[in-house]
Amino acid sequence: MKTHPLDHISRLLDNAASAAGRPSPRLLAVSKTQPADAVAGLAALGQRAFGENYVQEAAAKIAELAQAEPGTPALEWHLIGHLQSNKAREAAALFDWVQTVDRTKLVAALARHRDPARGPLNVLVQVNIDDEASKHGCRPEDVEGLAATIAREPMLRLRGLMVIPIPHDDPELGRPAFRRSRALFDAMRARYPQVDTLSMGMSGDAAIAISEGATMVRIGTALFGARARREETQAPPFYTGR
Ligand SMILES: *Cc1c(COP(=O)(O)O)cnc(C)c1O
Questions:
Q1: Strand ranges inside the chain, DSSP E
Q2: N or C, which end of the chain has less CB nearby within 10 Å?
């Protein structure tokens, strides 16, 4: 019997964590561009948390899965792509987590549209840790203010930080950015006891991110194979096959 990539990845994550003397991170399966049945396949193996980049794509997939597998354990959906303010209502209704909160305007919109019956929406502050002019995410010096704004909203639950550092051909070169992220996370956690999530590391650099203290890694390519369209992965794969 062939071992599923999920088992390999889980083992690699566990090994990276134990080598660094850290707890194993949560695995977020990044299912963007993947069909609903690929999600169902991983869900059948026990994977619960899935990440999507586009609200529209996620809405279709979530609806399809709900119809295909009624009564199966609920999946946990994370938005990991940039969120436009005019999509905040839909995002607040669809997702369990929004990892890309990077401005005050979004905080109010998400809080206003969250249905109280669903409980608070989990949110991460996305930080532009490499200070790239063109990327999303707030500046490191703005994290504290944004966190305070989120913490004041009863319908939002501040859970931590998310970062997407610049990709490097040699993932080791990303280590300083992960280390700076962990320091910001520790500062946030010292102020807010409910903060428990540092989302960093993808297929190409998960091991480095874990050794620097990631508590959640977002893995697409290494679980599902290369994506056919939209995104190219710049980093080398963390897992390259059997
Ligand atoms: C696509 C994506 C990932 C997963 O990337 P892989 O290299 O396929 O593992 C993780 N995080 C974000 C924000 C993404 O857009």
A1: 26-30, 49-52, 76-79, 97-101, 121-127, 156-163, 197-199, 216-219
A2: N
d(CA 25, CA 199) in angstroms, rounded, equals: 9
Task: Please name the residue whose Cα sits nearest to atom 11 of ligand 1.
Answer: 218
DSSP summary character for residue 31: -
Domain count, the chain: 1
Q: Ligand 1: which of 231, 234, 238, 239 to mutate, most ligand atoms within 8 Å of CB?
A: 231
Share of the chain above pLDDT 90, in %: 84
* Owner of token pair 């019956």: 117
Residue nearest to atom 12 of ligand 1 (CA): 80
Domain that holds residue 196: 5-225
Is residue 51 classed as helix, strand or coil in its secondary structure? strand
Burial (CB < 10 A; 0-12, 13-18, 19+), residue 119, is: exposed
Question: Is 202 among the domain residues?
Answer: yes
Q: Give a yes or no: residue 152 inside a domain.
A: yes
Residue 242: inside a domain: no
Domain presence at residue 180: yes
Q: With a cut of 70, list the residues of the chain below it in pLDDT.
A: 1, 69-72, 134, 229-242
- Could you tell which of 82, 218, 221, 234 is best to mutate to test the pocket of ligand 1, judged by most ligand atoms within 8 Å of the CB? 218
As beta bridge partners, residue 198 has 161
CATH number of the domain that residue 131 is part of = 3.20.20.10
Judge contact between 172 and 194, C-beta under 8 A.
Answer: no
pLDDT of residue 224: 93
Cα atoms in the Cβ-side hemisphere of radius 13 Å centred on 85: 9
